[in-house]
Amino acid sequence: MRTSKYPSSSNGFSQRAQAVEPPPIAWLMEQKLKYPALISLAAGFTDPDTLPDKETMQIMHQMAKSKAVMRTTLQYGTGSGRKRLRELTGQRIAELDHTASDKPAYNSERILITHGSQQFLYLVTEALCDAGDMVMVEAPTYFVYLSILKYFGVRACSVPLKTDGIDLVAFEKKLEQLKQSGDLWRLKIIYLVTYHQNPTSQSMPLGKKQALMRLLARYERDAGHPIYVLEDAAYRELGFAQEASAPSMLSLPGALKRVIYSGTYSKPFATGIRVGFGISPAPLARALEHIKGNQDFGTAELLQAILERALESRLYAKHLKLIQARYAQKAGRMVDAMKKYFPSTVQWAAPQGGLYVWTKVPEPVDTGPRGELFETSLKQQVLYVPGCYAYAPDVMGPERNTAMRLSFGNASLHLIEEGIRRLGKSLRATLG
Ligand SMILES: Cc1ncc(COP(=O)(O)O)c(C=O)c1O
Fold first, then answer.
1. Which of 89, 118, 193 for a ligand 1 pocket mutation test, highest count of atoms within 8 Å of Cβ?
2. pLDDT of the chain along its 432 residues, tens only?
3. For residues 161 and 141, what is the distance between their CA atoms, to the nearest angstrom?
4. 265 three-state secondary structure
5. CA 297 – CA 74 distance, rounded (Å)
6. Do 354 and 236 meet the contact criterion of CB atoms below 8 Å apart?
7. Most CB within 10 Å of its CB: which of 71, 177, 215, 309?
8. From the CB of 232, is ligand 1 less than 6 Å away?
9. What CATH number should be reported for the domain holding residue 330?
10. Interior CA angle at 342 toward 341 and 344, to 5°?
11. What single DSSP character describes residue 386?
């Protein structure tokens, strides 16, 4: 008789699937179901009132007039994405970087269209990391990316954030430690959310990006491979200020070899259309396309075609202006309400873009999901994202439990004000 290596109680899941946990966001959404009247300042959902419904209808109506167009857009496409959308994407990023789009860094051959930038982040991590490898992340960082690292058995190595991006002194110290211990070869990616970061809303200035690239060039000889910078620019186009954003790392020397740019049309246009993209060094771009081939062999043509037309007709640019103004208004309302309702010991920085206000409360208040503040807030029917989710396991200090992420993206102006009022009440009750 053959005996199985699995105990009879096993579900036969792979080790990866056994290790997977429901993402924190699923738990936060459950709370919304449990407490229907809850005001959620937690979800990263976008503003429902400014979704481009008319624009999308107009584009689809135009498309439907041509049988030839419908024949291609209702069909499978290529693995890397529609050529025209890739070209428009390269042109757009070059424009944002204030440079010529015919530079190799923005070449459409290096661009992969994905199902949201989330898929791109996943594919990059799969292509570059084996279990036991390391990725450097900001502390705090985008918590869903931490889940991807955990899933692949990749170690997150945290570098603290200053008010203008990562602490370069701490970053260099980590590189040096890894070099001395002979572990530098395990460091594959530096993951940075460089524009209106999730969760802190900070942006990284150009000077810091340049210094970081110089450091990497110095250390990667000892790593034996490029140490890639994965620049996540998901919130790049959601800035409120009139002045242009800093150029991306694609514009810097050495970019062709080590910069991977992750972008999205999801936040700036429609999360429901969910088209994202990535720009990678050429050999990596091919590997990513092949892995995507195994997953879905191409992002939905129809959705790509909608985006293509939005970009070409300038509807996209027009819509962007509208949502930037809307988010500036919502952020302003949130910050004004915080000034009015929060105890003076609570700290935050007014965001210049993005969807979040990162808020720090004084100890001993614990912002964690099992802490008194979270419980009291739920009773007040208001939800925030506990700051602890945004820290990798190697961060053990008090910062884990003294912050919360508040989003002004989804709630109406009225509910933002009311949510902050209730949160202020819970803060006062918890602080005594
Ligand atoms: C920092 C960051 N990167 C990437 C994503 C993924 O967005 P999408 O897949 O909609 O492009 C998000 C979504 O919230 C995010 O906050």
1. 118
2. 556 777 777 788 988 888 888 877 777 777 777 777 899 999 878 999 999 999 999 999 999 999 999 999 999 999 999 999 999 999 999 999 999 999 999 999 999 999 999 999 999 999 999 999 999 999 999 999 999 999 999 999 999 999 889 999 999 999 999 999 999 999 999 999 999 999 999 999 999 999 999 999 999 999 999 999 999 999 999 999 877 789 999 999 999 999 999 999 999 999 999 999 999 999 999 999 999 999 999 999 999 999 999 999 999 999 999 999 999 999 999 999 999 999 999 999 999 999 999 999 998 899 999 999 999 999 999 999 999 999 999 999 999 999 999 999 999 999 999 999 999 999 999 998
3. 9
4. coil
5. 15
6. no
7. 309
8. yes
9. 3.90.1150.10
10. 125
11. E
Locus of tokens 């809307």: 326
- The Å distance, Cα 305 to ligand 1 centre, comes to 21
One DSSP character per residue, 188-224 reads EEEEEE-SS-TTT-----HHHHHHHHHHHHHHHHHHT
Residue 42 domain-assigned (yes or no): yes
Atom of ligand 1 nearest to the CA of 232: 3
Show the domain range for 369. Answer: 15-51+318-431
Domain boundary among 313, 335, 361: 313
Q: DSSP alpha helices (H): ranges in 296-399? A: 301-312, 315-341, 372-379
Q: Whose CA is nearest to atom 3 of ligand 1?
A: 234
Are residues 243 and 300 both part of a single domain?
yes
In a domain, 64, yes or no: no
**Is the domain of 20 the same as that of 162?**
no
Q: What are the residues whose beta carbons fall under 8 Å from the beta carbon of 25, sequence distance 6 or more? A: 43, 143, 144
